[in-house]
Design goal:
- The chain has 5 helices and 12 strands.
- It has 300 residues and is α+β, with helices and mostly antiparallel strands.
- An 8-stranded antiparallel β-sheet has the order 1-2-3-6-7-8-9-12.
- A hairpin with a 2-residue loop joins strand 4 and strand 5.
- Helix 4 packs antiparallel against helix 5.
- The chain starts with 10 loop residues before the first strand and ends in a 19-residue tail after the last strand.
- The structure holds uric acid (URC).
- Keywords: Oxidoreductase, Purine metabolism.
- Catalyzes the oxidation of uric acid to 5-hydroxyisourate, which is further processed to form (S)-allantoin.
- This is Uricase.
- InterPro entries: Uricase (IPR002042).
Length: 300
């Protein structure tokens, strides 16, 4: 008979929706996040005997997330996440490792009578900025990123010369629409003295540029070039991971109506979609440790 044992476990408070307003001057600032805290450590008893003595409640984690929005501030999600993770590992004995995952929603000031308004914004829909921070006794890891970044080019994309079997019906193309909703994550080599906002903005520029300028032979090639450009431009990045659904745009058949369609009218298909995923790394990158050990998405 095999013995049944407790395996990896972790717990926390997922998706605290924290909004911090800075209102010390008439021109307010807003920071809007979805923050999840995840704790790893000596929690066997909670599972095996029901003894909760070591369990810092998920409710306390929620309270901490809100209080740290004031105590630490929320100007930089990476700094806020590091502060939370350091607090859990440093202050609670049972906790060996803390993982903080944050999505940040950007807001943009409305324009009233030609001027930016002091305290009214509209949601900026372009992408969600992400951060994932892990702290344990051996070190600290920060992974920055973005997701839901929808980007499309109307030409400059090919897909041809692929392997063919008896089910292959796809026609090769040297001129197609390429579109995706990009998720990108980048692992920092260290965590001190980094201008998180500058690196974020610069990496976004690199990702966009490669998507636009590369004469793409495949989404795979575009993703590789994106990751490579980020690593070339930013020595503080050790590794980039990219995940891109191929949002297929099919030329719509207008022939039944006697209407010519020279790649001018498309059906934007919803599903299924190719899902292309690529890691680009330095051959001498420091080991990732637990940098990629997810909380949200652990099973995916
Ligand atoms: O860029 C692409 N990569 C693929 O692997 C693939 N497969 C497919 O059918 N279309 C595409 N496009």
């Amino acid at each position: 008979m095999s013995e049944i044992v407790l395996g990896h476990n972790q717990y926390g408070k997922a998706e605290n929706r924290v909004v911090r307003i800075y209102r010390d001057t008439p021109r307010h600032e807003i920071h809007d996040v979805n923050v999840s805290s995840c704790l790893r450590g000596d929690f066997s008893d909670a599972h095996l005997t029901g003894d909760q003595a070591n369990v810092l409640t998920t409710d306390a984690q929620k309270q901490t997330a809100y209080s740290f929005a004031k105590e630490v501030g929320l100007e930089k999600i990476e700094d806020y996440a590091l502060a939370l993770a350091r607090h859990y590992v440093g202050d609670v004995d049972a906790i060996d490792e803390a993982r903080i995952e944050i999505d940040e929603y950007a807001w943009e000031r409305v324009i009233v009578d030609g001027a930016e308004h002091d305290h009214t914004w509209v949601r900026k829909g372009q992408e969600v900025r992400t951060a994932a921070v892990t702290v344990n006794a051996d070190g600290e890891w920060v992974v920055g990123g973005l997701k839901e970044f929808v980007i499309l080019k109307s030409t400059g994309s090919e897909f041809a010369g692929f392997y063919k079997d008896k089910y292959t019906v796809l026609e090769p193309t040297h001129d197609r629409v390429m579109a995706t909703s990009l998720t990108a994550q980048w692992r920092f080599t260290h965590t001190d003295g980094i201008d998180w906002d500058e690196v974020y903005a610069g990496i976004k520029v690199q990702l966009v540029k490669q998507f636009a300028v590369v004469q793409s032979k495949a989404l795979q090639q575009t993703l590789y070039k994106m990751g490579k450009a980020v690593l070339e431009a930013y020595p503080v990045i050790a590794e980039v991971r990219l995940s891109a659904p191929n949002k297929h745009h099919f030329v719509y058949d207008l022939a039944p109506f006697g209407v010519e369609n020279n790649k001018e009218v498309f059906h934007a298909d919803d599903r299924p979609y190719g899902l292309i995923q690529t890691t680009v790394t330095r051959d001498d990158a420091t080991p990732p440790g637990p940098a990629w050990d997810a909380y949200q998405g652990w099973l995916s």
